[in-house]
Hints:
Number of strands of chain A: 2
Shape of chain A: globular
Number of strands of chain B: 0
Strand order of the largest sheet of chain A: 1-2
Structural class of chain A: mainly alpha
Strand content of chain B: under 5%
Number of helices of chain A: 20
CATH class of chain B: Mainly Alpha
Largest sheet of chain A: 2 strands, antiparallel
Oligomer: heterodimer
Number of domains of chain B: 1
Distance between the termini of chain B: 58 Å
CATH architecture of chain B: Orthogonal Bundle
Distance between the termini of chain A: 20 Å
Shape of chain B: elongated
Radius of gyration of chain A: 22 Å
Largest interface: A-B, 41 and 34 residues
Number of helices of chain B: 3
Radius of gyration of chain B: 18 Å
Amino acid sequence: xxxxxxxxxxxxxxxxxxxxxxxxxxxxxxxxxxxxxxxxxxxxxxxxxxxxxxxxxxxxxxxxxxxxxxxxxxxxxxxxxxxxxxxxxxxxxxxxxxxxxxxxxxxxxxxxxxxxxxxxxxxxxxxxxxxxxxxxxxxxxxxxxxxxxxxxxxxxxxxxxxxxxxxxxxxxxxxxxxxxxxxxxxxxxxxxxxxxxxxxxxxxxxxxxxxxxxxxxxxxxxxxxxxxxxxxxxxxxxxxxxxxxxxxxxxxxxxxxxxxxxxxxxxxxxxxxxxxxxxxxxxxxxxxxxxxxxxxxxxxxxxxxxxxxxxxxxxxxxxxxxxxxxxxxxxxxxxxxxxxxxxxxxxxxxxxxxxxxxxxxxxxxxxxxxxxxxxxxxxxxxxxxxxxxxxxxxxxxxxxxxxxxxxxxxxxxxxxxxxxxxxxxxxxxxxxxxxxxxxxxxxxxxxxxxxxxxxxxxxxxxxxxxxxxxxxxxxxxxxxxxxxxxxxxxxxxxxxxxxx
Amino acid sequence: xxxxxxxxxxxxxxxxxxxxxxxxxxxxxxxxxxxxxxxxxxxxxxxxxxxxxxxxxxxxxxxxxxxxxxxxxxxxxxxxxxxxxxxxxxxxxxxxxxxxxxxxxx
Lengths: 500, 106
């Protein structure tokens, strides 16, 4: 037995231990929410640091292969996704503590559940076996159901949680049925064994496997809120407390994409073209329906939820073209996930900080003349919205640029056209808020706006700077990690998938 | 021996799964919805155990055991949410829970 393999499991282990420690600490009265948030932060940072040790080189290792019988894998791909997910956890803890502190129903267990959700997502990205990924998906989802409905005297929270619970269980059951059918077809649930089975048999012999793979794909479309399965996301995102919405909208999507890219690229490598037709229409309908929903929303939380459906559509554009241009499509998906993660986490985080003390500022109208009261907050919010809309000099523009270029290269010009049209429409609902904040005189602001002080505005400010840096940084200072670094490591991540 | 009755077991599990889906779609009582979801999970368990016997390997049975554990944890969340919902509105009808519907537009 090799002892040095433990380094590859430390990110996972530290989060798991942290979740259990926090669960044990949270009933003790002496530990306030503030102290517990530092404990959670400690474990998250340990995990982030151990994950960063192997960053930047191509490797693929199955830690303790005999013990886990190749169920877990640690490669550059999982390292890349792990760092996004753990960063999501860190930002949620830093920004959310203020919110949790102000609402008295949210107690210390929140951090334990949050770490369990992060643990499930990390396991999902690292799993090399379909049933392990089912367990990981369930750990992450069940923690999220509880996090949404944690304030149990608020009917909206409970209802959002219950709707997500019913539909989410239905999706997990579809996943399990898919795994069972693949097991029936190939006698194995290990991704590498299935891949070698599929490459050594004729397509006519594997109907069961194709049906199983399609069921798993349905679960994937459900979890990222693509077109026919999008309605839960509006309810769940609106019902959840704002920091939890931020965590769900950005981080969970990253984890699901991490799993499905591994599944499609390694496992169904031979068959990935059979789904392009159906995904083509799903991508178009997702963008159209998402834009349509987002235009009519009056609440900002619902608008951001609806616009996250549109962003799912952009990601699906690259996912469709993965059949013909594997490497650049996968790279553009990974890069866009980072861009989307930064922008949406920042926008939701800013909203949650502004609304943390009085829950008054939730609709467009509440932000009329906001820039005259809190100019820096309005500027940060504008940067996030500009990045979400994909305006040049932000990281969101670069992400969209790669996705549309990839779609045109692989011959899906119609997808690129619909994507660009959806971007035009998105300018309407993002710029409406910017215009309301800047171009109107400020009336008497009702309620209490938290000041620009403390940790949450600092973290949000850093994210705003990162977005600008991702957009123009590389041309200013060379030799400092910028877009090129991100894209190169995304390529390494793609290559490490095929080393096993 | 299993070969002779293999199709009967698979048909039974598909039948149970379909009953579960129909229950999930058509019933209004949140308890029955929960029971339908459990029925579907157990139908998949039956399929897994049958396949494991058919392939004469233990993999399927081990997976079935773990599915039971996951179903139990899901049941804990389901039941606690049902209790919390009943406390708030004193109703088990899913139609009474419509706080998240956006009025007016769309």
